[in-house]
Amino acid sequence: QAQFVESGGGLVQPGGSLELSCAYSGSSFNMFTMAWYRQTPGNQREWVASISRGGSTNHKDFVRGRFTISKDNAKKMGYLQMNSLKAEDTAVYYCNFPNSLRPWGQGTQVTVSS
Length: 114
Fold this sequence. Notes:
Elements: E1 4-7, E2 10-12, E3 18-24, E4 34-39, E5 46-51, E6 57-59, E7 67-72, E8 77-82, E9 91-96, E10 108-112
Parallel strand pairs: 2-10
Antiparallel strand pairs: 1-3, 3-8, 4-5, 4-9, 5-6, 7-8, 9-10
């Protein structure tokens, strides 16, 4: 079954940067809007950013100007460049197609701490 595999998380100091990657094993990656989400313990998964079929992007207010979503259709990969990280960005990050949800991957843990 087609799935997402997220990677690139880790421990980073406040103000630091990380780039997350999202690999999709199915077909038709280029046909869907792709999004990144994040979740902290005890809270619902929340939308962070999305990129449309045509490459138009949208970012949640709390990450706008710091995070940038992108994708490579040929590689069936999505990316989230995260700069100026804050402690409140600590979460498990996931990717998916918001309009055609697939099984959720395991996510990648991002911890921002000094």
